[in-house]
């Protein structure tokens, strides 16, 4: 166990020897990974299911996506190309947790998927920290599961 800075204002005692948590050169924050880095993104079966909604009064639904990694600064997710994800939107993790995001990186994976690198917008660090605390347990469970395909109940994840 070691005290680790996970944001500019928060530090937390966590196990840094776990393979699901890494600090990469050039990144400001530790990242939690929800996928097997030895598989290509085209064949991934793991991740956290989320909904994407447009900004604005009515916030129409854009579609679904799968979060592959996350930190206090942002996240990486896979989204269908057909959804035409805008540059700014809401990421809904469940009925009570939503975070405003801006796309800072796009990469087409194949003819159906694109990888989006997101940067969190706003100053609500408490919501992000609470979300990371909840999701880091999923990262550990996924790693302990040795990345076998496991059925995930969508309702469990969205409320």
- CATH topology label: Thrombin, subunit H
Instruction: Note the beta-strand portion.
Output: 35-45%
Overall shape: globular
Low-confidence stretches: 13-19, 145-159
Q: How would a textbook summarize the main sheet?
A: 6 strands, antiparallel, barrel
> How many strand units?
10
Distance between the termini: 32 Å
Order of helices and strands: EEEEEEEEEEHH
Strands of the largest sheet, in order across it? 5-6-7-10-9-8
Please write the CATH class name. Answer: Mainly Beta
CATH superfamily: predicted glycosyltransferase like domains
CATH architecture: Beta Barrel
Give the C-alpha Rg.
Answer: 15 Å
Tally of domains: 1
Arithmetic mean pLDDT: 74
Structural class: alpha+beta
In oligomeric terms, what are we looking at? single chain
Number of helices: 2
Please describe the topology of this protein.
Elements: E1 2-5, E2 11-14, E3 21-22, E4 31-33, E5 48-53, E6 61-70, E7 74-80, E8 88-92, E9 98-108, E10 113-120, H1 125-144, H2 154-158
Antiparallel strand pairs: 1-2, 3-4, 4-6, 5-6, 5-8, 6-7, 7-10, 8-9, 9-10
Domain PilZ: 61-135
GO molecular function: cyclic-di-GMP binding
InterPro entries: PilZ_domain
Description:
The protein is of the alpha+beta class. It has a single domain (32-158), classed as predicted glycosyltransferase like domains (Thrombin, subunit H, Beta Barrel). It is built from 2 helices and 10 strands; from the N terminus they run ββββββββββαα. The protein has helices at 125-144, 154-158, and strands spanning 2-5, 11-14, 21-22, 31-33, 48-53, 61-70, 74-80, 88-92, 98-108, 113-120. The strands form 2 sheets. It has a 6-stranded antiparallel barrel. The chain has a two-stranded antiparallel sheet with strand order 1-2. Strand 9 and strand 10 form a beta hairpin. The protein is globular, with a radius of gyration of 15 Å. It starts with a strand and ends with a helix. Mean pLDDT is 74; it is low at 13-19 and 145-159.
């Amino acid at each position: 166990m070691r005290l680790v800075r996970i944001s500019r204002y928060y530090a937390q005692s966590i196990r840094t020897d776990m393979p699901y948590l890494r600090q990469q050169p050039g990144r400001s924050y530790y990242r939690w990974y929800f996928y097997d880095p030895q598989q290509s993104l085209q064949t991934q079966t793991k991740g956290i299911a989320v909904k994407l909604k447009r900004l604005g009064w009515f916030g129409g639904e854009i579609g679904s996506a799968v979060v592959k990694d996350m930190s206090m600064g942002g996240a990486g997710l896979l989204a269908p190309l057909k959804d035409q994800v805008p540059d700014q939107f809401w990421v809904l993790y469940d009925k009570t947790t939503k975070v405003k995001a801006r796309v800072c990186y796009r990469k087409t994976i194949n003819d159906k998927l694109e990888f989006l690198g997101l940067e969190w917008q706003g100053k609500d660090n408490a919501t992000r920290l609470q979300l990371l605390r909840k999701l880091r347990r999923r990262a550990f469970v996924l790693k302990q599961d040795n990345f076998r395909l496991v059925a995930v109940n969508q309702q469990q994840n969205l409320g």
